[in-house]
Amino acid sequence: MVQPRVPRTGTVFLDRRGDDRSLRVTRHQESQLVVLSLWRDNVCAGRSPEAG
Q1: How far apart are the C-alpha atoms of 44 and 22, rounded to whole Å?
Q2: What is the mean pLDDT of the chain?
Q3: Rounded to whole angstroms, how far apart are CA atoms 52 and 39?
Q4: pLDDT tens digits, 1-26
Q5: Is 10 left (phi over 0), alpha (psi -120 to 50) or beta?
Q6: Prediction pTM value
């Protein structure tokens, strides 16, 4: 069984539907930015827009 990679910073919320789905919340202190990303099978499926 392969263990999913967990980010070094932020928080991971597992999806109760399974299928290795999760929501990752990562805070970037230096830019005062919070990024929400959706993951499935350890691949990023989408994320919140970042300020540019």
Answers
A1: 10
A2: 80
A3: 23
A4: 444 555 566 899 999 988 889 999 98
A5: left
A6: 0.69
